[in-house]
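ingest -> validate -> predict -> emit
validate: passed (alphabet ok, no gaps, 133 aa)
predict: started
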Amino acid sequence: MRERYTPEEIHYMDNGILTLDNDRLRRAVAMALAKAPMDVVDCVTDNCLFLMALAEEKGCYLQRELLEGKAIISLSEALMDNPEELERTILHEAAHHYLGHKNPLLADLSLEQYDHQEAEAWELVEHWLEGER
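emit:
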C-alpha cells in the first residue's frame, strides 16, 4: 500500500485553493508535502491555507478555530530564494498543524512548552525526510 502522494497528486487535489492560486507556492507546497505521509497531507489540505507574506519569521501557524475552520500557514517570501529551507519550513509548519500545537502568540505557553512544540515539530520533519531517503 502506498504511503505518500506524488507531488502531482497534491498539486491538483485542491485546484489551487490550498495556496490561493499562487502557482509558485503551490508547486513548493506540493513538493514538500509529498515527503509527508498521506494522512498528514490529507489533514493539512483539508484544514489549512498557505500564504506567502513578507514577514520577519520564516513561517507562522495559526490554529483553525481562529479562521472559521481553516488554519493559515504564512511563509516569508524570502524563502522562495532557498528551496531547501522553504521545503523544511513548509513541513515544519504542517507538523505544527498535524500535532495540534498552539500558537505562542495566542496561547499562554511557557518557554519550555514553546521549545517542546518546536522540537516536536522538527523531530517529525526529520522523520518524514528520513522516510524519503
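The chain is about 50% helix and 10% strand.
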